[in-house]
Design brief:
Keywords: Membrane, Transmembrane, Transmembrane helix. InterPro entries: DUF1294. The protein is mainly alpha-helical. It has one domain. It has 4 helices and no strands. The longest helix is centred in the first third of the chain and has 28 residues.
């Protein structure tokens, strides 16, 4: 027999919600750790403040773009094109996008969107691995 308290109105189980939240937070912290460390170290070494600023500013902008798109989706209004969202993610807004996806439950079920989103996250990870551990100096181009 099912306990009525463990079921949500949509029929899904609410059990494990806290553990699920902890897993999502862990993933967020893990994928943000390397870029944050890299951007902070570049700033502290006096190399550039651009990566740290870009991640912060563009992430906030991206978060609000997701919020606006979700609101527009609910009222069937003009939507933000996916390529705009992906461009913001690529410009450094992927941490804000990841947070917005979870907070607003937006763009989490569309597989093609998620594949490109996680490819962008992976690209940022590879960039920072290259910068920090392989000694490449790609940011000197900026």
């Amino acid at each position: 027999m099912s306990d009525a308290r463990s079921r949500r109105p949509d029929g899904r189980s609410s059990g494990g919600g806290i553990q699920h939240l902890k897993l999502k937070l862990a993933v967020l912290l893990i994928v943000c750790a390397l870029p944050l460390f890299g951007a902070l170290s570049m700033w502290l070494q006096g190399i550039s403040l651009v990566p740290l600023t870009a991640y912060g500013v563009v992430s906030v902008l991206t978060f609000f773009m997701y919020w606006a798109d979700k609101r527009k989706a609910r009222v069937d209004a003009w939507r933000t094109p996916e390529n705009i969202l992906h461009a913001l993610e690529l410009a450094g807004g992927w941490p804000g996008a990841l947070l917005a996806q979870q907070v607003f439950r937006h763009k989490t079920r569309k597989v093609s969107f998620q594949i490109l989103f996680w490819a962008i996250v992976a690209l940022h990870q590879v960039f920072w691995i290259d910068q920090l551990f392989l000694g490449s100096n790609l940011l000197s181009l900026f």
